[in-house]
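User: quick one, sequence for these tokens?
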């Protein structure tokens, strides 16, 4: 809470606005779609003594860019015995509405939350109790979480009531009565609010006939599924990390981090069979595994007990070994007697 001396000084300066000079001058670039007709745009500047302090907090779930967005005084309306102050932001279609009784003492401190969706304010009924200088009327919020909140400190309303008639409204352009950027606290990316779980699609084996097709999408690198499959969102409360197959988790207190790494046999142990990465994942028709491809029983691993990645098969005299021009995974062994001598008939 600021001292009374600070508020006294603000009675004679632009703070908490960037500029309150007469005539009104734009402080920021125009906002697309926010321009008002010239006849509805207020030309009278708000007296400096009216508002001596303002502050706002932008909630974490709002996309507020501190370099591009701002908060501004949208309108001031007099409805005796109240004065209403409407604050808006360029980041969302909500506003703060402060209802101040004209008899309230100087440096009145009011706090308000915005409402998501269309905002409808209600003027409190004028009664014997509402004429009290200590009565504040707070506007209710919807059931959803407010996008932003703020406070207003009212100075002296005398100068404003002299020039603003009962029932009259001053409406300002979005780039005129702009609040000082330092008076806005944005909580975006300030802390972790929830956890989401997702898994990427696994890398699958492509059939050889597709691999070697010049016109196939796989030959251009576009056949693999690269989608992220979401399983759970907005997890909150007391959450715990559980080690899966070949996985280990440790807490780094010095670096303030949780380190998740791979280790053979760690966590839930070595996995002996395939399992679904996400609900609904299915084995492709004709395949045995989620990853596709042949099983170990379908692959020749040795020939005459000899194996290896560079095993060479060569034809001998009268024998040729060639690759099938249609099925590139097949070898064709055939007789070739061209190199043998031909004995003439006797």
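Assistant:
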């Amino acid at each position: 809470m600021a001292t009374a001396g600070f508020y006294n000084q603000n009675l004679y300066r632009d703070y908490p606005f960037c500029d309150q000079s007469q005539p009104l001058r734009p402080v920021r670039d125009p906002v697309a779609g926010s321009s008002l007709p010239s006849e509805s745009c207020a030309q009278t500047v708000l007296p400096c003594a009216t508002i001596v302090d303002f502050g706002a907090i932008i909630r974490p779930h709002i996309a507020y860019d501190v370099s591009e967005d701002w908060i501004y005084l949208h309108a001031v309306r007099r409805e005796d015995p109240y004065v209403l102050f409407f604050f808006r932001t360029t980041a969302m279609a909500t506003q703060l509405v402060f209802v101040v009784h004209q008899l309230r003492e100087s440096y009145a401190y009011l706090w308000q939350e915005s409402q998501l969706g269309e905002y409808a304010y209600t003027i409190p009924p004028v009664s014997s109790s509402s004429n009290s200088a200590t009565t504040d009327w707070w506007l209710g919020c919807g059931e959803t979480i407010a996008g932003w909140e703020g406070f207003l400190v009212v100075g002296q309303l005398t100068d404003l009531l002299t020039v603003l008639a009962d029932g009259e409204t001053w409406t300002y352009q979005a780039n005129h009565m702009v609040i000082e950027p330092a008076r806005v606290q944005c909580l975006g990316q300030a802390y972790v609010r929830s956890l989401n779980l997702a898994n990427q699609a696994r890398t699958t084996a492509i059939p050889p006939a597709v691999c070697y097709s010049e016109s196939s999408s796989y030959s251009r690198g576009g056949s693999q599924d690269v989608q992220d499959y979401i399983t759970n969102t907005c997890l909150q409360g007391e959450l715990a990390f559980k080690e899966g197959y070949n996985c280990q988790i440790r807490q780094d207190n010095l670096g303030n981090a949780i380190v998740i790494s791979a280790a053979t046999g760690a966590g839930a142990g070595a996995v002996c069979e395939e399992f679904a990465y996400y609900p609904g994942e299915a084995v492709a028709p004709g395949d045995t595994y989620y990853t596709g491809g042949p099983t170990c029983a379908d692959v020749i691993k040795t020939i005459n007990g000899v194996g290896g990645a560079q095993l060479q098969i060569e034809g001998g005299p009268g024998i040729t070994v060639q690759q099938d021009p249609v099925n590139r995974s097949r070898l064709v062994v055939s007789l070739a007697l061209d190199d043998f001598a031909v004995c003439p008939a006797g």
